[in-house]
Amino acid sequence: MSETGEVLASPALILGAFLIIKLDPGSIVYYVTLVMVVTKFFFLCLFGQFIYNETEKIFTTLYLTRWYEMSLSDQKIILMMMKMSKEPFGFKALGVYDINIVMFVQVIKACFSYCAILYTFM
What we know:
By secondary structure, this protein is mainly alpha-helical.
């Protein structure tokens, strides 16, 4: 499954696990399932955050090279690379949402909110 598919499926699985835990709170299997889904989603978001953090450093790393000692054509290439690296990049879900720790926190908060609403109606 791709990153986008996992990002879209994880909130649904978390909500489903919460709902099943509400219906049958005595079974440990559902708790383990919930922990596994949240852990998998967390590591996916953590990996996306690492990629984003590392691409942020590319501009500085390129600038700190001895570009002034390079040939003119290499200097132009370094300059082009620096222009391209000004905007850090990372994983995106559906080409819109950044997959990072901020997304993890937002999804978990939304899941708890939806579960609170579901628990009040049950």
